Amino acid sequence: MPRRNAVEEEKTLARLIGGRLRELRLLNGLSQSQLGAHAGVSFQQVQKFESGNNHVTPWKLVQFANALGVGVDELLGRGETPKGEPVSQRRRSVLDAVRGLTEIERESPETFAAICHLIRSQLGQKSRRVRPRSGASGGSKRP
Fold first, then answer.
1. pLDDT for 109-140, tens place per residue?
2. Which parts of the chain fold into alpha helices (H)?
3. pTM attached to this predicted model
4. Which one of 3, 25, 106, 120 has the largest count of C-beta atoms within 10 Å of its C-beta?
């Protein structure tokens, strides 16, 4: 029979992995059903993994990492960028920026186009005119 400390450590690890799984799923904009489909499990299993009630097997850990576009180390809370910034924090910042740009595009297509122009100029790319999507509200459409 395993030592009590080993059992507690195993539960702690299951909760850690589950929490990381949930965080990365949300950062990737996936539902539990979508992640489950990518990894070959039901959404109920994803719920149990995320809560730490079920343990993720090594094979499922690899499948989840692949589905989320990360390494297994990141699911274990050990992934970092070369600059030492945690990958999840970096992804969260990028996701926040994308969400903000999506909102700006919807509310002010002209501002969105100006931001895209600024980004391209900072990257040294040839500036192209950005046209609002046909579903974007506000502003005039260009031919």
1. 999 999 989 988 888 765 455 454 444 444 44
2. 4-27, 32-39, 43-51, 58-68, 72-75, 87-107, 109-123
3. 0.56
4. 25
Counting beta carbons within 10 angstroms of the beta carbon of residue 92, is it exposed (0 to 12), middle (13 to 18) or buried (19 or more)?
middle
Say how far apart CA 5 and CA 36 lie, in whole Å.
31
The CA–CA distances, whole Å, from 60 to 20, 51, 65, 81, 123 equal: 14, 16, 8, 24, 39
Which has the closest alpha carbon to 68: 31, 18, 37, 24?
24
Chain position carrying tokens 């186009």: 113
Give the 3-state DSSP-derived string for 18-41, with helices as H, strands as E and coil as C.
HHHHHHHHHHCCCCHHHHHHHHCC
* CB-count exposure of residue 81 (10 Å: 0-12, 13-18, 19+): exposed
